[in-house]
Protein 1
Amino acid sequence: MNITLVAGARPNFIKIAPIIEAIHNKQTEGFLLNYRLVHTGQHYDENLSGAFFEELSIPAPHVNLGVGSGTQAEQTAAIMIGFEKELQENPCDVVLVVGDVTSTMACAIVAKKAHVKVAHVEAGIRSGDLTMPEEINRIVTDSLTDYFFTTSEYANENLRQLGVEVPKIFFVGNVMIDTLRKHECRFKKPPLWDDLKLKNKNYLVMTLHRPSNVDSEQLVKKLIDQIIKLSKGYPIIFPVHPRTQKLLNALHLNFKNLHYVNPLGYLEFNYLVKHALAIITDSGGITEEATVMDIPCITLRNTTERPETCTIGTNVLVGNDPKKIKKAFKTLFSGTWKKGSIPELWDGHAAKRIVNHLTTIV
Ligand code: UDP
C-alpha cells in the first residue's frame, strides 16, 4: 500500500511525527507499506517548520511544494496546483491529512477529485464558528473524507449526526499527545529560564495567533493591557507567532514583566508549559497539551472544537470578555483552579492504532 502524508504547518508536523514512526514500525514487522511525505511549504519559517523536523526526528520530506505565504485563497490555490502535480507523478492508494490547516483542506480536495481515498486525522471536531478559517477547513475536509480518525467521543457523535457511516469512524485517540508522551522526558530548559531567573510555577506562558484576536490592533492592545494588570507582576513569556509579530511591531507595548521571544522549539516550549503557573492562549493544540500536563489554561476564545479540554481538562474559555478574564485570574491566584484528567485514549498510542486500521481497510 502507498500512502501520501501531507504536512504544511507547525501543528501538522507535531501530529505527523508519530504516524511516520508507526509506519516505520509496521514496515519493520514486514508489512508492505510505503509512504511519501509531502511538505506543502505553508509554514516555511525555520522556527515554525525546519526546527520541528530536527527535534522530532521527522525524516526530510520527499517533496516540498514551497507554496509560501499568501491570502487564504492564494495559499489554497497554490497548494492545490502543486499537490495535483505531485499526485499525478506519484500515485498512491490513500492521502492522509491531519488537523485543520489550509493544506489539510486543499490536499483533501485534490485527492478526492483524483479518486484517491482520503484519511483525516483529527476528524469530526467542530467549533461551530464559521469566522475561523480552520472551521471551514474542517467542514470541507470531512465532507470528502473516507476514513475518519477521531480524538474524542464528541467528534464521533458530530460525525454520526452528519450522517457518516459508523464503520468509517475510528476512535483512535490523539496523535499530538503521542508526541507529548514520547518527548516529555526530553523537554529542554530554554536559555531564557536562567536569563529571566524563572522558577517552577512562578511565571505565565502566552501565545496568540488566531485572526479573531490578532487582526485588530485595538483588541490586542486591550487584551495585553488587561492581562498585564491582572498578572501581579509574574513574568509572562510570550513566544510571538509571525502573524502576531507584524501587529505588535506597530503597537510598541512594553511592560516590565512581558517578555517577547521568537517561537520556541517544541522541547523548549513544552518545558515552559510543564513548569508554568498557567497558560494564556488562543491555540487549539496547546489546550490539549495543558490538559494532559495538568496546567491551568485560560483560552482567549469564545468557542472550542475541543470541548473535552474544558469539561474534563484544565481549560477555561474566556473569549476577550474582561469579566471572564478577571474571574479566571482570580481563580488562578486563589489556587483553586480545577484539576484536569486525561481524556479517553490520549495515551500515546493513537498513531499505532491509525496505522493498524489503515493496513486493514485500504
Ligand atoms: N508550539 C511550539 N512552540 C511555540 C508555540 C507552540 O512548539 O512557541 C507547539 C505547541 O506545543 C503545540 C503546537 O505548537 O504542539 C500548537 O500549534 P499552534 O498553536 O500554532 O496551532 P493550533 O493548535 O492552534 O492549530
Protein 2
Amino acid sequence: MAAANPLRDPEDRRLPRIAGPCGMVLFGVTGDLSRKKVVPAVYDLANRGLLPPGFSLIGYARRDWADQDFAQIVHDSVKQHARTEFREEVWNQLSEGLRFVQGDFDDDVAFDTLRRTIEELDQARGTGGNYAFYLAIPPSFFGAVVGQLQEHKLAQPPADAWRRVVVEKPFGHDLESARVLNDTLDGVFPPESVFRIDHYLGKETVQNILAMRFANNMFEPVWNGNYVDHVQITMAEDIGIGGRAGYYDGIGAARDVIQNHLLQLMALVAMEEPTSFDADSLRLEKQKVLSSTTLPRRLDLSTARGQYVEGWSGGEKVQGFLDEEGIKKSSTTETFAAITVNIETRRWAGVPFYLRHGKRLGRRVTEVAIIFKRAPHLPFSVTSTEELTQNALVVRVQPDEGMTLRFGSKVPGTTMEIRDVNMDFAYGGSFTEASPEAYERLILDVLLGDPPLFPRHEEVELSWKILDPVLDHWARKGRPDRYPAGTWGPPSADAMLARDGRTWRRP
Ligand code: BG6
C-alpha cells in the first residue's frame, strides 16, 4: 500500500470540486432567469470541467417544442450569455444530454413522460437517478409542481441516489405566505434537499466578507459599536424594470431585494464568528443577527420609498415607472426603498444599519460601507482637518470588485493640511483568475449537495418579520415619493439620514 502523502490534506478545499453523476430538470425554461443565468452557468460549469460527462438537462415548459428546439434555445442562450468561451466539443457533449418535456404544471401525462425521460437518461447517460428540480417559475406554481413531483414518485430518490429541489426568490410576499410556501416544500422534500437561491451569496465578493473578517486580525477589534458609527448597504441599479412588469408590479424594491440580498449581506457583516463554515454553523450565526434586528419606532422617519419618473440614464431620456409597459397607471409599487435597522446585541447596540436599493439610480453599484467614528481627539487646528471625513472601509461588491479603506493623510506641503485618501484592493490587480458567476457556484453546490450558501427557511421567515411592519406602514400611506430616473432616490431618503446627522454615500 502506498504511504499516505503527509503533505496532502484530504480536506483540502482548494481541490476542484466536481459533481458526481447527475442531471437537472429546469421548469420555466423560457423565462429570463433560465436563459440569462441558469443555462449559461450550466454551460460554464461544463466548460470548466466541473460537471460529470453524462450530465443531462431536461427542459419542462408549455411550448410545443421538440428536443431540437430546446437545444437551439439552450445554444442561443449559451452563445449570448455564457461567461466562458464557446467550445464545440463542450457543447457537443452537453447537447447530447438535452431533452424537452412539454406540459402544464398540473399535467399528469407530462409528469409521467418526465419520469420516463429521467429513467431513459439514467440508462443512456449514467445519471444514476440523481436529479435537481430547478423551479425557475413564479412561486404561485411551486405547489402544483412539487405536488406533481411527489405524486409521480419523482421527489423520492431511488436507493443510493438523491433528489433536490431548487427555488428562487421571492419566497412569499410576507411572513405568512412564506410560511405557507415553506410548508409546501417541506411537505414533499426533506429540509436538507431544499435549496433556496439567494444569488448574492454566490458572489465572490460577498463570500469574501467572511474571509476578510475572519482570516485577518486587524478588522475584528474595531468591528463593533465602539469604533463603528454606522453601516450603509447600497444596491443601486441604473436599469429600470425592463420586461419584468408582470413580476415587479406589486412586489417592489423592498420585497425584491431588501428582504433577501441586503438582509443577507447585513447578516454576514454583523454576525459573530461561526464555529466552522459548515451550513449549520453559518446559518445559525446569520439567524442570530436576523432575530436581533429591530426597526426604529417611527417608521415615517426611518424609512423612505420612491418611484422613478421620467429622467436620464446613460445619456438617454428614459420613461417613468408608470409609463413602463405592463405597469398600471395607479401602481403604488416602489422602485426605491431605504430602511434603518438596529441590531440589538452588545456588538452593535447604537449602530444603525441603513439599507437602500433602487432602480434607475445614478449608476450600478453594490457596496457595503462601514463608516467609523471620528477620532476622539484631533490635535490639529480646525482648518487643517476641514476636508477630513470619517474613516471608512468599503466592500465593493460590484462592479469594480474590491475593497477601499478611506483614511486621513497629510497633503504634501509646508502646512499641516489633512485630507481623505483611499487605499485600494482590486480583484483584477491581485488575481489573474476571473470570478465565476454566482449561478455557477450555486448550481455546482446544489449538484454537490453543499448547503452553506443557501438560506434556510428560518432566515427567510426572520427577514419577513423584519420587513413586514415597514410594508404595512407603506401600504397605509398610499403613493410613494417620486424621483427622476438617473438620480439617487427621493429627497425623503436624504432626509431620513439627515435626521441622524448623516449623509448617504454617492458611490
Ligand atoms: C434580482 C432582482 O434578485 O437581482 C432584480 O430580482 C435585480 O430586480 C437583480 O435586478 C440584480 O442582480 P445583480 O447580480 O445584477 O446585482
Protein 3
Amino acid sequence: MNFDNRPIGVFDSGIGGLTVLKHLVALMPQEHFIYLGDTARVPYGNKSAETVQLYSRQCAAFLREHDVKLIVVACNTASALALEDLRQSQSIPVIGVIDPAARSAVASTRNGHIGVIGTRATITSRAYEHSIMQHVQGTAPKIHSVTCPLFVPLVEEGWLHSDATTFIAREYLRTLVDAHIDTLVLGCTHYPMLAPVLSTIVPDAELIDCGQCAASEAQSLVKPCTPTDQHGTIHAYVTDQTPAFTALAESFLGFPIGIPERVVIDGPDERKATS
Ligand code: DGL
C-alpha cells in the first residue's frame, strides 16, 4: 500500500468547519490536519458568489503553501459557490460537503420528501437540489429548502437549547413539518450543534450531517499516513483572533485545540488562482 504523510487541508469561513474536522479526525486519527478559519471575513453566507470564490481561492492558496494532499471545503456556502472554481484551479483533489450529504440524503429518504436548511447563499444557489438530482435513480424526490440565517448567530452565542432557539427553529421548519420530510440535510457547518433541538421538531426525520458524509469521502480519496502508534496533529490558523473562536472551538470540535495562529491570506499574490 502507498502512504502519503502530507497533511489534509480544511478551510471554513470561521469556526463552524470544526464540526467537519471533528468527523475527519474521528475517522482518520493518524492523519495530520491544517485547519484555516477565515474569521476576519465570516460570514460567507450572505456574500456574493464572486466574493466567496475570491475568499475561497485565498484559503486554498494558503493551504497549498502547507503542501496538503487534499483540500476539504468544510463551509457549505463555499462548497455551493466556489467548489467548481477551486477544482479547476487546483492540481490536488478538492472536495466539498454538499455532494456527500446529497448522496446520503437520497439513500436515506423513504417517502421522497427531503428538507434542506442552510445559509441564504447556499439555499439561493440551489446547489443541494442540483446535487441531489444527480444521485437520484428512479422517482425524483421533492426537495424542500429553507434559509435559516438566525441559526449561525444563535449557535455562536451558545444558545443551543434555549426556548428562543426552539421557537425560531419551529418557525423555520414549519413548511418542512407540513411537508412530512423524512430526511433533513443540515446544510451549514453550525447546524449539527442544533441537532438536539431540530430532532424534537422533526422527530421522524433522519438528520444528515455534512461533516460526517464528507469525512467518509475524504477517507476514500487520500493515501493514508504511514501507520504509527501516534495520533496525527492539528494545526489551526485563523485570519483574526476572535474571542468566539477560543470560547467555542472545544464545543464544536469535541476536544481542545489550543490557540490558533493568526495569518494574513488576502495579499495581492493570493488573488490569483494557484495550480
Ligand atoms: N460556514 C458557513 C456555512 O457552512 C456558515 C457561516 C457563514 O455564513 O460563513 O455555510
Protein 4
Amino acid sequence: MRHAAIARVGWLLAAVLLAAAGSLAIALRAFGEHRARFETEARIVHRVLSQHAAQHDAILATLALLQPASEGSGAPEQRLAALYPQVLQVLRRSGTGPWSGVPAQDVPALAAAEAASRAAGRAALGPVDLAAGRYWLVRSGDPTSYALRIDLTALPPSAEGPPGAAVVWLERAGQRFTLQRGAGGEGDTAASPGPRLDFAKTLAAQSQPFDLRVSEHIGWARWPWAWMLAWSVLSALSVAAVAAWLHQRAEQRRNRELLRLGQVGRLNALGELAAGIAHELNQPLTAVLASTAAAQRLLADEGREALPQAQGAMAQAAQQARRAADVLARLRRLVEPAAGSTPQTVPLAALLDAALDLRQPELERAGVQASARCEPPDLRVTADPVALEQIVHNLIGNAVQALQQVASADRRLELVAEAAGARGVLTVQDSGPGIAPEALPRLFEPFFTTRDGGLGLGLSLCETLAAGMGGRLSGANAAGGRGAVFTLELPRAGNEGPGDGAR
Ligand code: ADP
C-alpha cells in the first residue's frame, strides 16, 4: 500500500514536470515571436523618423540653393508649413543682419548653428527643447541662411501604424520627448514584472542626432496562458493514461499469478483430500482385516465341517483387504505434495513483498493495514518456492478472513522474517479475534474447520508442505495482544552468520 502511494506521487511528479517543461517551451517560443515582431516594428519607427529628418535636411538644402532673386521678392518658403505639418516656422537671415522673429535668448544659438552649418556644409542643429517636442535646424547659405522650427508632436512614430504596446521616445543631452506612451502608459518602462524588450539607435541623419528608444514590457496578460493550460491538461491526461495502462498490466499479471496460485492450491488441496480419505479409510480397512482374521480363527475352532471353505474365503478377504490397504498406501505416496520438488535458495524479503503486492487489492478492499519486515534484509531459506508461496498465501488468506470479524480500523497484518541460528523464522500475525482455545490443538487436523463453508484443509496442507521442506509450522495466540500468530521455521540458506553455523 505504501508502494501504491509512492507510485502515485511519482506519477504526479512526472505530470507536473512534463507540464512545466512544455509550458516553459511554449512561453519561450511566444516570447521569441514577440521579440521578432518588436524588433521589426522598432526598425520601421527608426526608418520613418530618419526619413523625416532627411526630409528636413533636403528642405533646407533646397531653400539655400534656390536663393531669392532679390529682397522683397516674396517669401515662398512660408508656404512650406502647409505641405509639412511638422514645420512650424521658417526663418531667413540675409547679409550681416541678425536672426529676427525668435526669442532673444535663441539668437546666439542660431548664429552658432549657422556657423557650424557653414563649416560642415550641411544643416546643423539649433536650440533644442525636447520637453516641448521642438527644435531648430539651420542651414547657412549665401547670401541668405534659413532656419526651420520642427514640431515633433506632428510626427507619427510609424507610417505603418505604431507598435501600440511599446513606449517610443527620443533622447538628446538629457532631454526626452515621448512619441508614444505605450499600452501601459509611460510607467510601462518602470520595473514591472515580466520580461522587457529594448531598442536603442541614433537617427540616421547627421544633422539631427537624436537617440531613438523603444521599450516594451511583456506583461502577464500577454503570456500564452491558453496554450500552456492546454498543454498541461494534455500532459496530465497522457501521464494518467500511461499510469492506468501500466496499472492495468500489473493487475492482469497479478490476476494471472493468483490464478496460478489457485490452480496450484487446488491441486495441492486435491492431494490433501486424497491423503485425508486415505487416512479415514485406512482405519476401517484395518478393522475389516482384523475381524476377518478373527472369524477365520473362530471357524477354524468351531465349524470343523466348513473349515476348508471358510478358511479359503477368509484368506481371500484378508488378501483383498491387504491389497486395498496397499492401494491406498500407494495413492498416499503418490499425492505426497513435496514429492519431486527441488529445494532452492529463496530470499524472504522479496517473497514477503511479492506476497503483499499480489494480495494488495484484496487487502485494500478489506481495509487491512499490512506491513512486511525482514531482518537481516538478505535473509534466505532453503525451500520449494512454490510450496513456500502457497503457505504464505494460505496464512494471509486465513488472517484476512479472521480480520473480517473485527472493526475495520483495527485490521492489521504483520509479516516478519527473522534469523534464528540455522533457521529462518517467518511469522504471520493478525489483529483478529485469535484462535479459540478448543481449536488450538486441532488446527492442523485435516477437515478441522470453524468456518461456515470452510474445508479445513488449508493449515493441514501448509503443515505437510512445511514438513516436506524440512521445516515446521505452528499456530498460537499472540502473546500479550489480540490475534493469532503463525510461525514457519525453515532451514536457513548460505552463511548462517557468526556463531550460527554450528547449530
Ligand atoms: P479453513 O480455513 O477452511 O477453515 P484452515 O485449515 O485454513 O481451514 O483453518 C482451520 C481453522 O483454523 C479455521 O477454521 C479457524 O478456526 C482456525 N484459524 C486459522 N487461521 C486463523 C487465524 N488467523 N485466526 C483465527 N483462527 C484461525
